[in-house]
Amino acid sequence: MRYQLYYWPTIQGRGEYVRLALEDAGADYDDVVRGPGGMAAMSRMMEAGGRAPFAPPFLKAGRLVIGQTANILLYLGSRHGLAPKAEAGRLWVHQLQLTIADFVLEVHDTHHPLGPSLYYEDQRGPAKKRTEDFWDERVPKYLGYIERLVSDSGGTFATGRRATYVDLSLFQIVAGLRYAFPKRMKKFEREIPKLVNLHDRVAARPNIKAYLESDRRIPFNEEGIFRRYKELDL
Amino acid sequence: MRYQLYYWPTIQGRGEYVRLALEDAGADYDDVVRGPGGMAAMSRMMEAGGRAPFAPPFLKAGRLVIGQTANILLYLGSRHGLAPKAEAGRLWVHQLQLTIADFVLEVHDTHHPLGPSLYYEDQRGPAKKRTEDFWDERVPKYLGYIERLVSDSGGTFATGRRATYVDLSLFQIVAGLRYAFPKRMKKFEREIPKLVNLHDRVAARPNIKAYLESDRRIPFNEEGIFRRYKELDL
Do B68 and A105 touch (CB under 8 A)? Predict the structure, then answer.
């Protein structure tokens, strides 16, 4: 089956977790909104009523339209060898993905503490405060948890010897933090050697390597979730 | 099977979405941390290593320990008639629950825009700004989407004639907004008559009605997600 992914065409954003899974799986897919007429097609899907999704990303899989990043990965994981097939394993991997989703929201809040409707330029002061708290409290808590997981899993990846979609997402977290906060991340990486190793292992997977070198990978930029603002990276 | 729910004992918080599902289903469960030795038991579970969850709530179901609210509901839904059994319906209901989870995080951010580690009293100004944006932009967007869904579903509930765990969560959203923002919500309710009707239908379900009248239902308070601060309710 050929999938159609609908997501904003100029950012990695939440769509990137889906793109990484589709690419690693070698799945056939169209990144619809990056093609001609794509934006209008996405708008039509969202205004169709019925089971129209609340927001991108969403994935069309035959007659199914699946929204919410973690839900899309839940669907793709068991079909493409990126998650266990048994219920206990599927729930565990999904639970970790939802924890990553919470972290991603907190990353977004570092530059948008007053809400997603205002520009960054209108919330610089609060962004500084939120970013301090993020690096003092939240990053150590979340990434320390992940580091411990990789350590306890008995393998290279978060849940063992086989990579799941969670590992692809963790690659993206490390890559994103390196982009947005190069100084802070450089210092912090000594606390998370296993997670850094996991990142490198994912980056070296043949399909991911080819994807990262292709123009299908949109560069990080200041409209996505991971944004580089010098005044936040002290 | 008798379940064990682990969650903070003095707030509704995210655990409430699970409590509502367990109560509506008439399931046997222990609200562990509200019993003797419960807090120590929760700490032990979280520090156990291996597949220990990142944060409460989590549910013990036999040998399984399931974390993340939406993931717990995914597990309970198909077992207790609170979600469709077929994959398409299960994914659709889960997608809506994840959208509600996003909204719940935005509710929390109204009083904690600078992050969860600081006290409300240390972020009153930013909280006012975030709350304005929340009511101007976010509430109409989210609840307008839900109102349209109920309207298009051809039934009383979000996905049709049968209630799912999503409807129990939507009940909680309406109840919570009424508690936290009585003035603003009173005005806004005329925009969402179908959602208010859904709330009333859920509240009248025998098991929910009994639960709400029992002391198992913890009252709303200023340590939970929905907090009443007069200065935010203009």
Answer: no
**B54 closest CB neighbour out of A109, A145, A152:** A145
Residue with tokens 């299960």: B90
Q: At CA A228, angle to CA A224 and CA A234, rounded to 5?
A: 145
d(CA A98, CA A104): 10
Contact state of A130 with B113 under an 8 Å Cβ cutoff: yes
Rounded to the nearest 5 degrees, what angle is found at the Cα of B30, between the Cα atoms of B53 and B63?
Answer: 50
ipTM: 0.97
**Backbone phi, psi, residue A61, to 5°:** -130, 90
Q: State which amino acid sits at residue B17.
A: Y
Residues 6 or more apart whose Cβ sits within 8 Å of residue B98: A68, A70, A71, B70
Specify the amino acid at residue A28.
D
Residue B166 contacts A, CB cutoff 8 Å = no
Which tokens belong to B198? 């859904």
Per-residue pLDDT of chain A (234 residues; tens, 9 = 90+): 999 999 999 999 999 999 999 999 999 999 999 999 999 999 999 999 999 999 999 999 999 999 999 999 999 999 999 999 999 999 999 999 999 999 999 999 999 999 888 899 999 999 999 999 999 999 999 999 999 999 999 889 999 999 999 999 999 999 999 999 999 999 999 999 999 999 999 999 999 999 999 999 999 999 999 999 999 999
Q: What domains can be seen in chain A, in order of their start residue?
A: 87-205 (1.20.1050.10)
A188 touches chain B (CB under 8 A): no
Alpha carbons B66 and B52: distance in angstroms, whole number:
9
pTM, to two decimals: 0.98
Give, in order, the Cα–Cα distances in Å from A131 to each of A116, B113, B114, B134. 16, 11, 8, 21
